[in-house]
Amino acid sequence: MKIPEYLRKMQGTTRGSPPRVSSAEIFWSWTGAFLGIAAVAWVNHFFFTGTDLSLMIGSFGATAVLVYGAVRSPLAQPRNLIGGHILSAIVGVACWKLLHPYPWLAQAMAVATAIALMHATRTLHPPGGATALIAVIGSPGVHKLGFWYVLMPATVGPLILLAVALLVNNIPSSRRYPEIWF
Fold this sequence. Notes:
Blueprint: H1 3-8, H2 23-48, H3 59-69, H4 78-99, H5 103-120, H6 127-137, H7 140-145, H8 148-151, H9 156-168
Helix pairs in contact: 2-3, 2-9, 3-6, 3-9, 4-5, 4-6, 5-6
């Protein structure tokens, strides 16, 4: 490929902006995200305050965008939601344990390997990349969890978000979740 052709690919297309969504769609996305994140935060507050465990991680914000705002996306389906977070957490913890003397390498290896494994297992969930990265760049408390991080928060949190998604996303007749389980 010649350089001008390569650079031309960066111009994008002329398709225009993404389509607008209805007020109802905005309402249900907001409601689901609010209830989903509130449920994870509530469980964290009432069961894990004062312990070394934490149920809330930043990647759940991006998960909420997918499972409540893009309910039909393949990336938002239960297999991807749960599998993506679990695989990425395993990879992130393993990279931290093996490569912590070289943080830059552990960070890059965690995200890249998580993406590759999610692709290979058909569980691609973009917030999983953040889950892997958090396992590496997280606080000493996150590092102390070791592989418990896979269970708490990377499995339990997405399961709570999934339960809320199943309840909220199926209230309006215009939505159906999930599109596929596996």
